[in-house]
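Fold these two proteins, one after the other.
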Amino acid sequence: MILVTGATGFLGAEVAKELVLRGNLIRCSKRASSKLPVLLQPYSNKIEWVTADLMDADALEEALEGVTHVYNCAAFVSLKAADKDAMIRTNVTGTANLVDLCNYRGIRVVHTSSVAAVGEAPAGEQITEKHHLDPTTETDGYAISKLESEMEVWRGIAEGLDAVIVNPTIIIGASAGTAGSGQIFETVRKGLKYYTQGTMGFVDVQDVAKCMIALMESDISGERYIINGENRAYKQLFEEIANCMHVEAPSKLAKPWMMEVAWRGASFWGALTGSDPAIDKTSAKAASVTRVFDTSKIKEAIGYQFRPISETIKEVCAALTAQAGK
């Protein structure tokens, strides 16, 4: 039996769908308050849903009954400063619970981390799996939670856990809708005026799911892999999205000081309304930073060829345009 945690989320749902399409009968965990994703509704007879929060060790133990493989896609994600401590505590403790139970039962794990836990490379170099985030200087709650959660998996590996870690870049795909990375597309569609000088990695959600499955089915253990389709300048990405949606592309450069004003304003508005800020301090600074990722390790490990990001962009734009026209 295969268990997918976080299967109501963007990536988890894609992993579950891919497993079902390959003929697997799977079990998916969800929180009591979670709604089943539209993406998985056509496959409801192929999926056994269980209610199990990773923070609830007893419920998690029941969910793992008869399980031999786990894809861990569950995570608490928030841009709210007030959620920082809870996000770190939840993600780290939940991962620790899963690691301990899987290690005890001899269950193989593919754990979803993030490039947020990888950190930076020296100027002029590509970022590889050998780089690590410096916890003494990092202040972003999400990055810290991903790093410390990954450390729990490394602890488990040192204790005998059979596991692999994946570090995806920004995951995009039509099933995201206007949430998460879908906000980038929706913002451009509504008329984004500014672009930034930064560069970042982007990857199709289907590619991430397929890489995770290929790693699970391999004999690889005790390794981490950056999962990245292409490195794109934000300006180039915004222009391509705008062209696909037949809207005007951003034409004004947002300088670092302007991004600082933006995140401070968003933070203030979020505090007043209780909503997630449109941009936080970390995102604002990252938007002007050039980050180029090396994907040679994953390509050599499983021989994977990533889908062109332009194809994914077209799919996402078409889905959001159709949704907006309803």
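Now the second one:
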Amino acid sequence: MFDVFKRPKVRIEVPRLKQRRPPALTERVNLAELTPEIVPYLGQAAYIQLSVFESLARAVMLAPNVGAKELLGPAAGFALGKHEMLTAELRRLVAEPSSVIEPFAPAIDRYAAEIRGADWFESLTSIYLTAGILDDFFVLLATGLEGDVGPRAARIVAGDDGRQVIVTMLSDAMSADSMLSSRLALWGRRLVGDTLLVARSAIHHSGNPQNDEQRIEPVFTELIAKHSRRMDGLGLTA
């Protein structure tokens, strides 16, 4: 139970980006070229939502009071609901969704352990920021899926997540502790590299590293811009 208070070693490997361009450039990228097949897309997206649920459930368990537990509980329910809806989409295509989801579990579990944080506040920050990046990414990636699965998957991932309560809880905590904001700002910046590596693992690679980097760059630029806005919303410096 108390493993959450042990600071893990965080691997910081932020993908190299060229000079930033306006987020609108993402629209020019042919996301169909980056998107994997429908089945692995749904499998990875489903397990990520299950991992978010597990992180939120742990945060509920370790919450300092009943009020905090009640506020976080619905957010965990939303994440589990997204997992179940993505699994239902997968069940339309394969007989055993778990066989598709299972291969993604080890890497995502390792990632979840690395970004867990040293205490409850870092854990909440991780959930809010990293789930936001991955939701944004899988919504963008869904636009490249063939047929009507893409729009449905995008709606599921982009649906209500109930995580806005985390902003209020962290803001209140930082107001009461002047040192907390500096610590969480540093932690928020450390989360980006590993989270973008998870996003990168979902991309279909052409085999041409230089071409892949050119296609991925504007997508990641937009993800980082949205991450910065979330940091700003928390009152943290990105």
